[in-house]
Amino acid sequence: MIPHEAALRARLLRMTASAQEIDDIVQDAYLSIARLKSVAHIRDGRSYLFATARMVVLQRVRRDRIVRIDSLTDMQALTLEDDDPGPERHAGARRELERVRRLIDALPGRCREIFELRRVQGVPQREIAARLGIPEHAVEQQATRGLKLILQALAGDGDDAQRNSRKADARTNDSHNNG
Question: How far apart are the C-alpha atoms of 108 and 9, rounded to whole Å?
């Protein structure tokens, strides 16, 4: 199943469309999207899919020569508007995501590398340890450290968290250099 298809099918089902009609509407919506020369203009795939399906339903209703009375009530139910939050929440979420990205970028080098592999890319701990030639517990410690630093920064004491991280790195480097 393609992303958002389940949500679209559920919405169409609430409109009392038959299973066959739903299949046809979804297929026509995908066909319409597949015919696009470019999808670069699509900012929100879910909303675009819902809007395309709404247009497919409207075209089907227009094509029907006989307008049944239940079609008129279906037209009112055609508010296939997406349940997703509005543009303000999307913008806020984008800003928050950018903030988290900056916080990840500000992590100390090895900590950032491990955090990204483990938490962002979902690479298993054992695989990271093998790739980097370090013990598995070191991977766990660095991933946890990165998460703690980011959570502290998000809680508002990010400057202190970054400073503490740099101090800890300096201590680690000193102990390696003096050892």
Answer: 45
Torsion of CA 67, 70, 76, 79, to 10 degrees: -100
Contact present, 178 and 170 (Cβ < 8 Å): no
Q: Is 64 in a helix, a strand, or coil? A: coil
| C-alpha–C-alpha distance, residues 58 and 158, integer Å | 51
**Residues 6+ positions from 39 with CB-CB distance below 8 Å:** 33
Q: What is the pTM of this model?
A: 0.42
Find all residues with CB under 8 Å of 154, minimum gap 6, and list them.
99, 100, 103
User: Angle CA(131)–CA(135)–CA(139) in degrees, nearest 5?
Assistant: 75
pLDDT digits (tens, 9 = 90+) for 65-124: 555 555 545 555 555 555 556 677 777 777 887 888 898 899 999 999 998 888 888 888
Q: Fill in the DSSP letter of residue 117.
A: I
Say how far apart CA 114 and CA 129 lie, in whole Å.
Answer: 9
What's the start-to-end Cα distance of the chain, in Å? 56
Tokens of 159: 């400057």
CB 161 within 8 A of CB 152: yes
Confidence of residue 174 (pLDDT cuts 50, 70, 90): very low
- CA-wise closest residue to 106 among 38, 56, 50, 162: 162
